């Protein structure tokens, strides 16, 4: 008798059959995969992007000196990344449905690594911007498609916990990014900040291939080329308009024309998508109050998240004269605080609910952004680090709440478009945040009559950006008390508008 036969012949524990035991073990394995393994693996893509963003932000002044350009012009490398990502995002959901999310996800990780190597070989600002554009194209598939896999394989009652695990690797990037970036540009060549993506991509692809299921729609709608063209041109016009505002690069008439073109394209898309069941962005999703709150209301909060890394690099390195390593050692504490919060977010949301957390925590987060405006060269470093840590801690809770709430009422057949729409909106507002921050620095410098950037031209920008984040409270306070209750396995009337 074989060992397998002996197991089948042996008596089962009282009250439990062999079949029940096997089913229970399979269920536990599935829960483990959904709760930890799959979110952590998908998070490796977010790790690459988060690592790249924070390393890049901290290295901007050093790269500017190496390429002999004005540091404020380096914001183009961040803006163009986000622009390319936002423009290409609408196609990512369709590709995942058509080809399979797993295949698209792995391909995007490889493309991100290859384009990172291209950035490392750049000899001019133009070449670096081109490399960043290709990185943005890869990221447009990598992050939303990975999130889509998670949304389609995880029950809503487990979604908050899975989202917390998903973003943990993404937070490791910001934790080690400033220190790693500062070390690289201080002791080595800045080009190594792009090479570090290569081993992460190799490991990530291997793990995805082994553990992540290939989620694929059976019926795929035709690709909405008109919608893609209208949203792409509209986003490009909007972002380039903010990018060139007050820069003396384009005449005011042309800048106004960019904003007018964006408004026209968005208006035409709204008309195109109203009665089109195959529209690339499903505008009807915004009728769900929870989705509208997470995406539109949360957008005002995310503007500051796009602007803050850029502004901190300008303040600490150019304004205060710190080295990249020293500035990195100070700013990493913000991401460390965010990482600590991730383990406590699910029980906090279960205890107090989404509405109460978003309102109270949103006020705290907005206040910490405004506090950055009071930093001066004489401010003790321990105090700056404390404020950054507190801000990172509470912002992490806000991100977890917004990301989970957005999908509370979305049906499975609309998850693809919901994920694409949410990711597109996030990339848009973050790129606008960077453009607005650079524009504010330009205007404040001119207003002060300075010929170069100084610390007291950066700090007012924090106050203005921080004030913008308070607008998001208007969406949070209108939520019903039980908004997002489905995510905790409890019935609720939801937030349908």
Topology record:
Blueprint: H1 3-9, H2 18-67, H3 75-99, H4 101-120, H5 125-153, H6 159-187, H7 192-195, H8 197-211, H9 225-244, H10 252-273, H11 289-319, H12 324-342, H13 345-371, H14 381-405, H15 415-447, H16 455-469, H17 473-476
Helix pairs in contact: 2-5, 2-6, 2-8, 2-11, 3-4, 3-5, 3-9, 3-15, 4-5, 4-8, 5-15, 6-12, 6-14, 9-10, 9-15, 11-14, 11-15, 11-16, 12-14, 13-14, 13-16, 15-16
Could you explain how this protein is built, in words?
The protein has 497 residues and is mostly helical. It has 2 domains: 27-223 and 280-488, Growth Hormone, Chain: A, CATH 1.20.1250; 224-279. Helix content is 75%, strand content 0%. It contains 17 helices and no strands. The protein has helices spanning 3-9, 18-67, 75-99, 101-120, 125-153, 159-187, 192-195, 197-211, 225-244, 252-273, 289-319, 324-342, 345-371, 381-405, 415-447, 455-469, 473-476. Helix 3 (75-99) runs parallel beside helix 5 (125-153) and helix 11 runs antiparallel to helix 14. The chain starts with a helix and ends in a 21-residue tail after the last helix. The relative contact order is 0.13. The model is unreliable at 1-29, 31-35 and 493-497 (pLDDT under 50).
